[in-house]
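explain this chain.
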Amino acid sequence: MSVLSAFAISTRWPARHLDRLQLYSFPTPNGVKVSIALEEIGLPYEPHAVDIGKNESWTPEFLSLNPNGKIPAIIDPDGPGGKPLGLFESGAILLYLAEKTGKLIPADAAGRYETIQWVFFQMAGIGPMFGQVGYFHKFAGREIEDKRPLERYQNESKRLLGVIETRLDGRQWIMGDEYTIADISMLGWVRNLVGFYGAGDLVEFDRLKRVPEWLERGLARPAVQRGLNIPKRP
């Protein structure tokens, strides 16, 4: 019996490669964090598309792995101590993969914690704020006559971009010369903000210098280009 058979999610998204890490995701800014990291690391994995447009993340099988009903989630059949591990929350998964492989995170303790703080910065600020800009600027929130909610998230997103702009002064990546999970956590969100959400003018993205250059460097990486399209949309 496979160790994956103990996870109910495998009944809806069965694994063909039982020895590989299983990724349950969709190509959203949160989802691509993990596929990009896996592509950068080179760890064998099997992706499964969880179609959030069809509410598949709210099915009993997916909720059995992530009770919060959000992608991405993983099962590592070779987790700590050789035992299978199911994990959700993109930031936690990034940290797990980095520590499991010793890649995409500094080896020294100070650098490690500094990297983690920037991942938390993304999780607490960039993701929620940029997502709200998308809702009020592009999606159903556009129909709300009161524009104060949009203005709040617009201004906060501009401020957060300014924090990144300042951080990148004299640095190629968030942690300097070393590309890490801190960069991976942010790339998809900044790309979405100015691309899919079409909010570049709204947040005055062209007035920045270092963030656009950082984004261009990141998107030019082959692993990033691959990861942005994994899993493939149905």
Notes: The chain is about 45% helix and 10% strand.
